[in-house]
Amino acid sequence: MKASDLAPAYDLVVIGGGPAGLAAAALAARAGLSTVLFDENPGVGGQIYRAIASSPVADRAVLGEDYWVGSDLAVEANASPALIVTGATVWSLDPSRVVGVSIAGQARLIQAGRVIIATGSLERPFPVPGWTLPGVMSAGGAQTLLKAQGLVPGGRTVMAGGGPLLWLLAAQILRAGGKLDAILDTTPRGNWLRALAHLPDFVLSPYFSKGLKLLREVRAKVRVIRIDRLQAVGDDRLREVVFGTGEGERRMPADLLLLHQGVVPNVNLAIAAGVAHAWNERQLCFEPVLDQDFETSVRGIAVAGDGAGIAGGTAAAERGRIAAIAAVRALKPEALVPDVQTVRQRLQRESMGRAFLDWLNRPADSFRQPEGETIVCRCEEVTARQVRDTADLGCEGPNQMKAFLRCGMGPCQGRLCGLTVTELIAAQRGTTPAEVGYYRLRPPVKPITLAELASLPIAEAERKAVER
Amino acid sequence: MFKRLADAGVAVAITVDGKHVGARSGDTVAAALIAAGIDHCRTTPVTGAPRAPYCLMGVCFECLVTIDGVGSRQGCLAPVRDGMTVETQSGKREAGR
Questions:
Q1: Which residue, among A127, A131, A125, A126, has the nearest Cα to A257 in the 3D structure?
Q2: Is B70 within 8 Å of chain A by CB?
């Protein structure tokens, strides 16, 4: 598929091919909307169902049944009339729903009747000393290597952090025959107090028995140590992990340190499109402001899936369906769609138990708000001390901080430092992240070459027009 | 650091900094570097520190490499192809030294 093969306009453009995007595209296309789905990865599935159609992991027990259910979504989307384009990077979206997309170095601007952003989540930044060393990787990264390439950690491996994904990955590595030297649990004990109120709801949810089983499976084989400090140490690569427990400092030699501190919405494209966002204090992240159909503050643009606030893969698919039903109703009211109330009820059931998990796994302040020489912005190598000192000088927000320190201005465009910078400024100035706000993001939200921009077709009248 | 569960897929030959690296179909460039035990893929423009793939999902930009002559490509999003030429990158201050 070449960019030049795309139509100039589609009823619906879906951005992201995880559960939300796949479910949305399939439903909308079946109802008769001309639908295209773009995903920048080599295959669909998103992160949760990464490589669902191509995974070399033959033993289904390794990744577990909750992974393989994703193949139904991929099959359903592929069987629908939706056009699914992988290797397609969306680099801009404006409030009039013009989508800038590049495929194999060729760019096009596509007009969408409606847009569903389904760009999902990314792992929360986990800024500890030494986290930029080769040999330190996100747990999600290691899971991607397992799902897509069948790669398992081979040397001395330590996992650190908290949250359901950390335990799931530990179990998957063990089932695949890998070995883990230790799991360093950063979850603060005090979290139980706030989580307790939501326990009854959690006990009734499917997360309860699955979670207990997973914890038992991992704890039977791996040493779990509760820690309150963490450091990756090495010269040109990771050599050892240093951590603090209640009883003092300990050191452990390691080849690989896998970090995980939960996931947060991937907000870059939505913010660049002008979508209003708000701070979520329970999940400690920004998320788009949405109506019950997941429509944003920008007319015709919806955000579905974990990008709409973290709720998990099964909920993501239901959210995608609700957003797609709204798109069909807006553009083709006569078309037959599933009963939206039924989908809402299913979504409601999927949300059970989340409040408990969110409060229980809420990362400690010390692991979100680093100090001293710990790098905050990996791209521009800006330290926590620099950010804190600049906030003390009177810098009020992350956008002004860019002018002082260039934080957030490297190639990742703030994806790995945005929340940390916001929280550090808030902590230093005695205010809230909601008050401080987030980076102002602008297209292109992914880097593109001048040659790609130059490949955009331009009509004679446009070429001659006076630009403002 | 990582080992393959099984040699699934077919062999794909790429070069990294002129040396032959055996990859498998289904690998991305970043995964092929990791599987081959290549420690880092670039240095940073600010201090010249070594960096290796971190997120493997297109958000961190640590896995930037030159692919077939085009610099600063995200290795984790590019599938390997037979005959592909990959070069590790130096941060700007280090380039040419």
A1: A131
A2: yes
**pLDDT of res. A246:** 86
State pLDDT tens for residues A280-306. 999 999 999 999 999 999 999 999 999
User: What is the rounded CA–CA span in Å between residue A50 and residue A72?
Assistant: 13
Note whether B8 contacts A151, CB cutoff 8 Å.
no
Q: Which residues of B fall within a CB distance of 8 Å from A63?
A: none
Burial of A173 (0-12, 13-18, 19+ CB in 10 A): buried
| Residue from the list B8, B28, B70 with its beta carbon closest to the beta carbon of A56 | B8
- In sequence order, the β-bridge partners of residue A183 are A159, A224
Domain ranges of chain B: 11-88
ipTM: 0.96
Subunit contact B24:A149, Cβ cutoff 8 A: yes
Average pLDDT estimate for A387-411:
97
pLDDT at B7 over 80: no
Chain B residues touching residue A412 (CB < 8 angstroms): 59-61
How many CB pairs (< 8 A) connect A and B? 132
B-chain residues within 8 Å CB-CB of A40?
A: 58, 77
pLDDT for res B9: 81
Residue B31 C-alpha, separation from nearest chain A C-alpha, in angstroms: 7
Mean pLDDT of A303-324: 97
Q: Is the dihedral of CA A308, A313, A315, A320 positive or negative?
A: positive
pLDDT (0 to 100) of residue A211: 93
For B11-88, CATH gives 3.10.20.440
